């Protein structure tokens, strides 16, 4: 299976070459491998029907237990058949539809790459591999939707689709990893056996909703349904393939795949059934409001996706059977309808319902394809669509009668009747109006499409009829294995066209009757829905735009508040945060102690020194000239050196004296060359107060910290060490001297060196400064602006380097 | 008389220090005209240093009185630092010539900063930590302000310097508290001491905790983690672009390495105390990086926020505090380097009529005018957004996995949500490149070095998922070396 996927990817890379070489028949040539794969996957079907699932493992990142493992059971083989089979038809179709387009080679590359990714999604057994392929489908579909990027609308749609689906995908990733870690393995086939444990786990709800976020966004479930109709701006083959047959079903696939693992709980059933039903009705209502054939189909696709979600949610024999039947039925008729409508658009130049009519004579084959597909879509016997609808009613009635949720069951049944009736209306709109209605003038003179354009629709439409008639084989080969995959155990299933005069049949009759009534009154129905929509003024699409705008606004607000560009704000923020953090830590550790100052055991000299520090600090803060400020800080430094001296660290004190003196001298020299401290540098009252509060808070917190740690034992005392060894090891009685020149001789040497170097550096800087200043300062402003214009700066070229 | 220290563990650093001095002399004698030569030599020196690192013994060795340690964790991180630095020098060569900043000091300062980073990675003592950090920082301050005649560049340098000095002050204050209450600055001794503490019913003095908090604050500044990130956007925007590229990779890797070593080795047994700090910083960085980036129009500012976000993700792994988490961090940084250098390479190619442009809208229609460049950017953006199969996805995957295994569920989930928001602005760049109409196309001529760097990094990012094992195993072995002791 790995070779199948890699083969498709390799073929995608070759595709542009093939398309350039044989531009007229590229579609036919390129469709061969997918067609072959269809047959290959079909050859597994009898074995799988007999209960033999195939598993294939290739080590990938063995250290992490991430393997490229694939699993082929009923569910995945059905999807694989759909992807390859419909894919082959689509490739042929695109060869005709986009003939002569300069971008066609690239188009084939993308669509085949998409096919490979999609195959990966449905075959992958490893969760990580699944995520990788899943996101690859988002990426390739983005490139395909944006294929016609001339229109701003198309660009917006492509971005919207990418954002919604890949955001969902990332959320899903969190859910799947959580699932893998909680479940103790990353293989989906193994996780299926641990369903009981997982459903009881406290993180079950988190896992479920994270994963559903991915599935719902991908499969356009309410409230994320808005991206799908917009994505229909893509060329028709893309819409037909991605947005009806395959990609949008990836979410459905994932829910079905995880049904045995996560399904069956109340949260699962309620969420899926509710969301699915709302989506189904909403899609149907919106579909009836459209006049563009393609948009009609887009919204009916949403309906179908909603119904499928609902069926997975219900679970149980009937629902699972229905799921499979309906899945296949929808893939057949919707693919056929999309391609057929594309052919109509291609040949007549329009897709508007009002502009089309009487095409039956002119395009008989296309008409036949669309007609057959529309009948299946409308759910009339003996098509597969009919079986799907019958069983859907059985499932919802089952939920109502013995599923434990009677109220929900009845509401859902009613919702399904309405949405199916509306589906009939759309089938009428797509087939009856354009083909049987009165002949109209179209932008292009209509005639039958070439074989490439009608082959796909007719094959798929015929498949819909054939599978409906020969439903016995279908049941044995596909329906039973898929139902077994979903249930996690073998299932007894039975599907039939005629089940007697049962309640589902009566519901079908009611649906058909309602559908005919609604179709006949379509203009009024549409007007009514439009009126309701106008009254509600709800639009997810606009909601999404609002959401994006809000994000941008939030970002801008952040910049205003935190990222002001002023250094003083940054310093303020940093200090404030540190203050809060330290204070919080102290509170958390209950370390706030408040010894009274009188209890502190300090000599009176220390008190005097402390007073000097305070005074000097105050002087520095209040100083109106830089010189006073730096001298005051110098006083602080000297006093600190005195404190070192007082507490027995003479060597440190001497270093401190030296550095402090030098700093004051150098800074004072530099300051002498700066302009006077002018009025604009003085903060106003309010910011001065704010700065004072922050500074005092910081000081207070650090002081509190010191006070609280002051009692803690400090594990070493160097004074004694030096005092006792000064004579014995250093041969000197003056302890300070011995420390400086013996115990810490290298330190002293280093300090002297550093201080000297710093002094020399400062000296040379100061000496060099006047020359530079004279030459450069008047031009500084000009230099900056000229640089921004891209012109070389004069100053930079004749710089002052020796 | 103490015996002469065994110098072999520090051989790459010694080689680099001597080379830097030699190159500086060479530059002074040859003049600015030979800056290109000096740049190539700098790259050569870094390559040789990387080879020296890789050919080291691989076992844990200490030297300089236990101040300096060399182990496979250090080797891994040093190779990353050297790689990031060498690639930055490569992409700078043409830029500094074009923009009239051709000074021999430029590559030499890069080399000296890199040397500082190597010392940081190998620091085994609070003192050697500080010395390495300052060697790096001082060189970086100068580099940020390298275009003295450019108001924005000078402003960037000044802001970086003032805030950097503030953070260094905090770090030193914290280090002195740690020394005061533990009686040593050596990592190995601290580790033994705290391991003993851990058994005494978790009684740790407030002085130590406060010291650790201050040290962490100082280091958080260096990796530009929230709330010490404020300098990043301004400095990234103001500094010359190759310097920004350098800022975005090499110092980050070195500071993260230092952070990891400090928290895992000496403070490893105090994980319960520091986890809250890292948890908060990681979360705040991810959220702020994601949300704030959305509003940006300048691509360098955007990259600043992006790097803040990425550091947040890497810190998620550190918050786990496990071997798996450290492996995730290392892995993340490795991927991060490639994506970032590549992206900055593309930003350096953004010129219209010979003039640098930095607005995101200037990328409009890149797919039509420069299809290959657009494709490379597409790969980088997908990778940064963490969308598979690009390498960035695996980076995120491993840190989140580690976080979940350490039961930090909320952090992992909030992190994923932040990355969802972050994906928005990366994808917007792709939209601009692929779907918007070009206003004025970018210049066509792209130098050979640039092509090499962009092509190499983008291929790595794209094809990584075929061969993830070598890098992953390297990171695993390196992480194990940190937990062995």
UniProtKB/TrEMBL annotation, chain A:
NADH:quinone oxidoreductase/Mrp antiporter transmembrane domain segment(s): 124-391
- Renumbered to this chain, region (Disordered) spans 768-802
Q: Which segments constitute the MrpA C-terminal/MbhE domain?
A: 689-775
Pfam families found in the cross-reference section: MbhD (PF13244), MbhE (PF20501), Proton_antipo_M (PF00361), Proton_antipo_N (PF00662)
Q: Which GO terms describe its molecular function?
A: antiporter activity
Where in the numbering of this chain does the MrpA C-terminal/MbhD domain appear?
A: 612-676
Q: Identify this protein by name.
A: NADH dehydrogenase
Q: What is the lineage of its organism?
A: Bacteria, Pseudomonadati, Pseudomonadota, Alphaproteobacteria, Rhodospirillales
Primary localisation category: membrane
In this chain the NADH-Ubiquinone oxidoreductase (complex I) chain 5 N-terminal domain maps to 62-108
Residue stretches spanning the membrane: 74-95, 107-124, 130-149, 161-183, 203-228, 240-256, 268-289, 296-319, 325-344, 365-387, 407-432, 453-472, 495-520, 570-592, 604-622, 627-647, 653-672, 692-710, 748-766
Where, subcellularly, is it found? Cell membrane; Membrane
The membrane topology term of the UniProt record is: Multi-pass membrane protein
Q: Which InterPro entries match?
A: CPA3_Na-H_Antiporter_A, MrpA_C/MbhD, MrpA_C/MbhE, ND/Mrp_TM, Proton_antipo_N
Q: Which GO terms describe its biological process?
A: monoatomic ion transport
Which portions of this protein are annotated as coiled-coil regions?
Answer: none
Q: Which organism is it from?
A: Skermanella stibiiresistens SB22
Q: Which GO terms describe its cellular component?
A: plasma membrane
- Keyword annotations: Antiport, Cell membrane, Ion transport, Membrane, Transmembrane, Transmembrane helix, Transport
From TrEMBL, chain B:
Q: Where in the cell is it found?
A: Cell membrane; Endomembrane system; Membrane
Enumerate the InterPro entries for this protein. Answer: NADH-Q_OxRdtase_suN/2, ND/Mrp_TM
Q: What class of enzyme is it?
A: translocase
From which domain of life does this come? Bacteria
Q: Provide the transmembrane region boundaries.
A: 6-25, 37-55, 75-96, 127-146, 158-181, 201-221, 242-264, 276-295, 302-322, 328-350, 371-394, 406-427, 448-467
Annotated GO MF terms:
NADH dehydrogenase (quinone) (non-electrogenic) activity; NADH dehydrogenase (ubiquinone) activity; quinone binding
* Keywords, in A-Z order: Cell membrane, Membrane, NAD, Quinone, Translocase, Transmembrane, Transmembrane helix, Transport, Ubiquinone
* Main localization of the protein described in the UniProt heading: membrane
Regions annotated as coiled coil: none
Annotated GO biological processes are: ATP synthesis coupled electron transport
Which HAMAP family does the protein's record reference? NDH1_NuoN_1 (MF_00445)
Q: NCBIfam families, per this entry? A: NDH_I_N (TIGR01770), PRK05777.1-3 (NF004440)
PANTHER family attached to this UniProt entry: NADH DEHYDROGENASE (PTHR22773)
> Subunit composition?
NDH-1 is composed of 14 different subunits. Subunits NuoA, H, J, K, L, M, N constitute the membrane sector of the complex.
Q: Which family does it belong to?
A: Belongs to the complex I subunit 2 family.
The UniProt function text for this chain reads: NDH-1 shuttles electrons from NADH, via FMN and iron-sulfur (Fe-S) centers, to quinones in the respiratory chain. The immediate electron acceptor for the enzyme in this species is believed to be ubiquinone. Couples the redox reaction to proton translocation (for every two electrons transferred, four hydrogen ions are translocated across the cytoplasmic membrane), and thus conserves the redox energy in a proton gradient.
Protein name (Swiss-Prot/TrEMBL) = NADH-quinone oxidoreductase subunit N
Q: Which organism is it from?
A: Skermanella stibiiresistens SB22
Lineage of the native species? Bacteria, Pseudomonadati, Pseudomonadota, Alphaproteobacteria, Rhodospirillales
